[in-house]
Design brief:
Elements: H1 14-33, E1 37-38, E2 44-46, H2 47-54, H3 59-64, E3 67-69, E4 75-78, H4 83-92, H5 95-98, E5 103-111, E6 123-132, H6 137-153, E7 160-165, H7 172-184, H8 191-199, H9 226-241, E8 247-248, E9 262-267, E10 276-282, H10 286-289, E11 297-303, H11 304-314, E12 324-330, H12 336-347, E13 362-365, H13 373-382, E14 387-391, H14 393-397, E15 400-405, E16 411-415
Parallel strand pairs: 1-5, 7-8, 12-13, 12-14
Antiparallel strand pairs: 2-4, 3-4, 5-6, 6-11, 7-9, 9-10, 10-11, 14-15, 15-16
The structure holds adenosine monophosphate (AMP).
């Protein structure tokens, strides 16, 4: 074989493809309870949309975007995340006017040129939500509770919600300055962090190399303005009301510049170094920065692969069983037409009825008129068919077929008209 899937990408089929689908369906049901409606947006956008919203001095923009020129020289990028696109769609389509509540969710793959490892890919699936135009702490708390409920529904029974606030444009600059002053006195920061002290000092806080040994760091909570203090207290009060446990994590920052005030990350103890299942926060200035009216907003995204991995470790994942199989076998080519007709009829039924009592999802396989009856049975076995409907000459003369239960090997003759 001359070709391989590009590094950091993966194929999904069979049970794993079904699990991803089941995860998305499960999340859809939770989003519905919170009244979020689904939004689809392009896989690629104007690269400037991401540069502008995520921030020039972030890892995503500096190192991780898949940027390309199309045939007309437009500079485009595969989407590294969903928020910027949802904001663009919200503004471009006038959704503030047409949707009474600006609550949206999405499912789809994102692209980042990162160093691949377990739980970190270059193309990965996210499920996320955005809530526009509610400035109050209730929106932050709702999104965090939503993320928790989505993860719970996905089978994540153990998780830790890390909570922090980044303040607002009136109080963050003094923290940023104090942090930059502190960091500039520190010896031996890694090369990236030496740069970040000037460009984006907050990111030094989540550097895996440097942050563990930095002690007595200035803390954002000590710099918050009165309104931010009140907002943060309000979010916490509502989280407690919804019995959503959290830990204040003063080292928590985010890899995207657009966040204001509340940020959070939900982690699993079962995932090793890539332990973040979901993350998000408030971004009150992004809609305006992208050319819209001042519109507060808050959102989150989870990594589908990581959620499925954690649920598997906990043995509590969503069940995504394969459909139950009815196999149609024919004793000769002359019966193919009738067998084909019955297959089409069975597939048009909402449920397989007495053939497979209680089945929610079922497949009808066959006929394979060019194979011998023996090899049709072998195939039915491989496919774990529960029932085989056999078209034989003699029964067909009586307008009947034989139905074999593959588990018990019991057979009975049934009139074709009764299906
Ligand atoms: P972010 O968009 O960076 O806030 O990430 C939100 C969630 O997406 C994270 O908590 C991860 O679960 C997941 N995620 C981010 N980057 C990757 C990646 N490269 N591979 C797999 N999952 C990822």
């Amino acid at each position: 074989m001359d070709y391989k899937a590009p590094r950091g990408t993966h194929d999904l089929w069979g049970a794993n493809a079904r699990k991803l689908h089941a995860l998305e369906e499960t999340c859809r049901r939770v989003f519905q309870k919170f009244d979020y409606s689904e939004i689809k947006f392009p896989t690629f956008e104007d690269a400037a949309l991401f540069t502008r919203s995520i921030g020039e001095a972030t890892d995503i923009v500096e190192k991780e975007m898949y940027v390309f020129e199309d045939r007309k020289g437009r500079r485009l990028s595969l989407r590294p995340e969903g928020t910027a696109s949802v904001v663009r769609a919200y503004l471009e389509n006038g959704l503030a006017q047409s949707m009474p509540l600006g609550k949206f969710f999405y499912c789809g793959s994102m692209f980042r040129y990162e160093r691949p490892q377990a739980g970190r890919y270059r193309e990965f699936y996210q499920i996320g939500a955005e809530y526009f135009a509610n400035p109050g702490p209730a929106a932050d708390a709702e999104v965090i509770v939503l993320a928790r409920d989505v993860l719970r529904a996905a089978g994540i029974s153990e998780m830790t919600v890390h909570l922090h606030t980044l303040g607002c444009p009136s109080c963050r600059p003094s923290f940023r300055k104090s942090l930059a002053d502190y960091l500039s006195t520190q010896e031996g920061l890694c090369a990236d962090c030496c740069r970040r002290v000037v460009t984006n000092p907050l990111r030094v806080l989540d550097c895996k190399i440097d942050s563990p040994r930095l002690t007595d760091l200035p803390r954002m909570v000590d710099f918050l303005c009165g309104e931010c203090v009140q907002h943060f207290a309000g979010v916490q009060e509502l989280l407690r009301a919804a019995q959503c446990a959290y830990e204040i994590d003063t080292r928590l920052v985010r890899g995207l510049d657009y966040y204001t005030r509340t940020i959070f990350e939900i982690r699993s103890a079962h995932l090793g170094s890539q332990d973040a299942l979901a993350a998000g926060g408030r971004y009150d200035n992004l809609v305006k920065d992208l050319g819209g009216p001042q519109t507060p907003a808050v959102g989150f995204a989870l990594g589908s692969e990581r959620v499925l991995m954690a649920a598997e470790k906990l043995n509590t994942g969503i069940e995504a069983p394969a459909p139950r199989v009815i196999f149609i076998a024919v004793a000769g080519k002359s019966l193919e037409r009738e067998a084909f007709r019955l297959a089409a009829h069975l597939r048009s039924l909402p449920a397989p009825g007495a053939l497979l009592p209680g089945a929610i999802a079922f497949s009808v396989e066959g006929p394979f008129a060019d194979k011998s009856l023996k090899s049709q049975f072998r195939l039915a076995d491989k496919l774990c068919a529960e029932k085989v409907i056999i078209f034989g000459e003699a029964e067909f003369q009586r307008d009947a077929v034989t139905v074999r239960d593959m588990a018990t090997q019991n057979q009975e003759e049934i009139l074709i008209g009764s299906f």
